[in-house]
Amino acid sequence: MKKDKYLKELTINETQKRHGDNTKKDVMKIQSWLSLYAIQNPESGTVTGIDGDFGPATEKAVKNFQKATNSSQTGIVTPQLFEKLCEGMKDAFERPLLSNTLRNAMVEAAENHLRNAPFELEIKGQSNSGPWVRAYMDGHDGSPWYWCMGFAQTILDQAASALGKDFRSLMPLTYSCDTVGTTGLSKGLLTRYQTVRNNPSVMKPGDFFLLQKSRYDWTHTGIIISVGNDVIETIEGNTNQAGSRNGIAVLKRTRNFRKTKLDVFSIEPLV
């Protein structure tokens, strides 16, 4: 994969513990993953502040995680325990894809990520933060870093790389929907929503949808995973139940393409 910054989210330099010789950055990683664990396991008691201070609250959260995962309740985070904390990201990025076509691999990769519940955190007052955002955004996070395109390109990169292809032959590495939209126009790969509504067959699983604000301004994107008569199913990053372009998670959504301005970027040349 070309987008490989996720690897930094899967390790800590050394064991971290209360009253230990700790590294603030590693402690913040631990606190982030503890909080992310609680999103899927709200009864676990692992939510804690993300401030880089391995104090009594973090120690207790670690013990609660250890209890929940049938580990010895030491309150100490070894590199091995940290691997268990972030095993969902490792699975999402490194589970071998079984599909032998790009479109199927796109859907498979997106579903693998969805299964592992990518979610953003708020850290030091900044939304769009945390391990998952940094993984999709090549190390960047914080409120300005809308991550829907980072997620979509990660899926494209992962699927293409599994088949020995380079996604950058289709589009540049970017976090901008506008860049992908204008690239699609210049290459003849972007189908406008009016045509999409009249001829839904132009959309195929693995293609990107681009939510159009105006003719040359797009605000949100995601991966199309299935196409019906009136709706598409998608997997999108940085969204929520309302379909926001600045939401909090990777979600599977159903969108009515006949009532929204959804342009479509085709990945066909890479297929």
From TrEMBL:
Query: Which residues are in the Peptidoglycan binding-like domain?
Result: 25-85
InterPro entries membership: Peptidoglycan-bd-like (IPR002477), PGBD-like_sf (IPR036365), PGBDSf (IPR036366)
Record protein name field: Peptidoglycan-binding protein
Q: What top-level branch of life does the organism fall under?
A: Bacteria
Q: What is the lineage of its organism?
A: Bacteria, Pseudomonadati, Bacteroidota, Flavobacteriia, Flavobacteriales
SUPFAM superfamilies with a match to the protein in the record: PGBD-like
